[in-house]
């Protein structure tokens, strides 16, 4: 049996190299997608948790005050929004460095 010509060997070698590079790139991107998913989940939690905590605490305080009032709920909801936005901004700033 005759060995294949040099031209076909170089094509085969180039094809194998291309496929190996594609596999390595796919593996790196897969880790990147998982890392980005974890980062976005953390970002969502640091924004939403103060907002929800402020709403619940405000509602509890309003239930224990005389008369019908949503003053505490709205105030602490706004405070939770500000704290959550500040937390998210700090996380983004720290992640960029």
Protein architecture, described:
- This protein has 97 residues and is mainly α.
- Helix 1 runs antiparallel to helix 2.
- The mean pLDDT is 87.
- The chain has two helices and no strands.
- The protein is rod-shaped and about 100 Å long.
E-strand count: 0
- Please state the structural category: mainly alpha
The largest sheet, given as strand count, sense and whether it forms a barrel, is: none
- Fraction in beta strands: under 5%
Instruction: Return the average pLDDT rounded to an integer.
Output: 87
Distance between the termini: 61 Å
Q: Quickly count the helices.
A: 2
Give the topology string: H per helix, E per strand: HH
Radius of gyration: 28 Å
What overall form do the CA principal axes indicate?
rod-shaped
Please bin the fraction of helical residues: over 70%
Low-confidence stretches: none
Structure, briefly:
The chain has 97 residues and is mainly alpha-helical. The chain has helices at residues 6-63, 71-96. The protein has two helices and no strands.
Descriptors for this entry?
0% strand, 2 helices, rod-shaped, mainly alpha, 97 residues
Layout of strands and helices, then pairs:
Elements: H1 6-63, H2 71-96
Helix pairs in contact: 1-2
């Amino acid at each position: 049996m005759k060995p294949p010509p040099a031209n076909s060997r170089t094509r085969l070698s180039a094809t194998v190299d291309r496929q190996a590079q594609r596999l390595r790139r796919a593996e790196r991107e897969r880790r990147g997608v998982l890392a980005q998913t974890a980062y976005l989940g953390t970002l969502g939690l640091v924004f939403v948790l103060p907002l929800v905590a402020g709403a619940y605490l405000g509602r509890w305080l309003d239930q224990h005050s005389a008369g019908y009032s949503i003053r505490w709920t709205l105030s602490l909801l706004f405070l939770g929004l500000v704290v959550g936005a500040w937390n998210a901004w700090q996380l983004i700033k720290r992640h960029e460095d």
